[in-house]
Structures are given as structure tokens and as C-alpha cells.
Design brief:
about 80% helix; two-stranded antiparallel ribbon
Length: about 210
């Protein structure tokens, strides 16, 4: 149902929405003497608590990813019942396993940060309590780092659950990158350089002959 043209339009719309949404939500933050940079608008606090983090940042992506993983699983079950080549069945099973593991990783990595942000917005810690404030910042940094892993874990998940992907990575690293690097190093070592000291050696040879 989705074409390349429709995908481009949808990507452009989502990018514009993300920019406008980030500007609108970022303008609601204010630097407070005791809490630091925090939401000062009551409407923004309610919006972040009941929609942004639980729905837009957590529940909605999980539902979308889970729906497509369920559709992929249903498609594989339907393909197994059909008379298709064995190679096609194996590839579809690998894709389904990759999608399912990606959804599980997304849920485990994103939910802790969203849950903590909802708690931190509604129960902010004052800077007048240094120990509690430092612990809160440390927990937020840990959950934020775990959440950022969500954007770089695709490669490792596909390496673990797809033999075809492993072969392709091996081909690219060994056949392409390694061969090019080896050729580049060998060409540097075998390069012919001009001899700038030829005049000095000629003078030494002439002095020896005169002796």
C-alpha cells in the first residue's frame, strides 16, 4: 500500500511535526533557582505526564511496532502453508525473528526512561537537597544512556539473529574494506620515490676514481 512517493511525503510531514512539537515543548521550560531547567507551565506538565511520554514516546511506538511484528508473524505462518521455496521461507523467518527482537529491545530500552521522566516532572527534586538532586540526575543520565542504545542496537540484533546478514557483513568487511585497505598499504610501500642524493653519490664516485 505504501509507495516511495507516499513515504517521502509522510517523512516530510513527520519531520515538520517533530520540529514544531520540539519548539513548542521546549519553550515551556524555564530555569528555576531551586529546580534548574524544568517545566514551569501547568499545561505542559499535564501534557508531558499524560500524553507525550506515556503515549507519544512510549505506548504509540510500541503499539505500532508490535502490530507490524504481529503482521510479519502472520505473514510467515501464511507463507509456511503455501508452496514456496525453502530459501524464501528461511529468509521470511529470519526477518520475523529480527522484527520481534527489535520490538522487545525497543520496549526494554525506552520504557525505563519514559517512566522516570513522568516521575521527575511530577515530583522534581530541589537543589537545596544536594544528595537527592545528584542521585536524580545520575538516574536520569543512566536511563537516558540506555534509551539512546535504542538507536544503535539494530546492527547487533541483526548480527545475532540473521545468518544472511552476518554473511553480508563478513563479505563487506573482508572482501571490500580489508582488500581495499591492504591494496592501499601495499601501494604505499611499493611506491617509487625520486632519489634526491644522486649528485652527492656521483661526486663520491669521482673522488674514489681519482684516488
Amino acid at each position: 500500500m505504501c509507495t516511495l512517493k507516499l513515504g517521502r511525503y509522510a517523512s516530510f510531514i513527520f519531520i515538520c511535526f517533530a520540529i514544531v512539537h520540539s519548539i513548542a515543548l521546549g519553550s515551556s521550560y524555564d530555569v528555576q533557582p531551586t529546580l534548574g531547567c524544568a517545566l514551569s507551565n501547568y499545561v505542559a506538565v499535564e501534557y508531558s505526564t499524560f500524553f507525550f511520554y506515556p503515549v507519544l514516546g512510549g505506548f504509540l511506538p510500541i503499539v505500532i511496532a508490535s502490530s507490524f511484528s504481529a503482521l510479519a508473524y502472520h505473514n510467515v505462518r501464511r507463507i509456511v502453508r503455501r508452496q514456496l521455496p525453502i530459501v524464501r521461507r528461511k529468509l521470511d523467518k529470519q526477518i520475523t525473528a529480527m522484527v520481534l527482537m527489535r520490538v522487545i529491545a525497543f520496549i526494554c530500552l525506552v520504557l525505563p526512561y519514559n517512566a522516570y521522566r513522568i516521575y521527575a516532572i511530577n515530583f522534581p527534586t530541589s537543589r537545596s537537597v544536594p544528595m537527592a538532586y545528584a542521585v536524580g540526575r545520575l538516574i536520569q543520565a543512566i536511563f537516558s544512556s540506555i534509551s539512546n542504545i535504542n538507536f544503535l542496537i539494530n546492527f547487533y540484533i541483526f548480527i545475532l539473529f540473521s545468518s544472511r546478514f552476518r554473511r553480508q557483513v563478513k563479505f563487506v568487511l573482508v572482501k571490500r574494506c580489508w582488500q581495499r585497505w591492504k591494496y592501499w598499504c601495499c601501494s604505499i610501500n611499493n611506491r617509487i620515490e625520486p632519489d634526491n642524493n644522486i649528485e652527492g653519490r656521483n661526486s663520491q664516485i669521482e673522488s674514489v676514481e681519482n684516488i
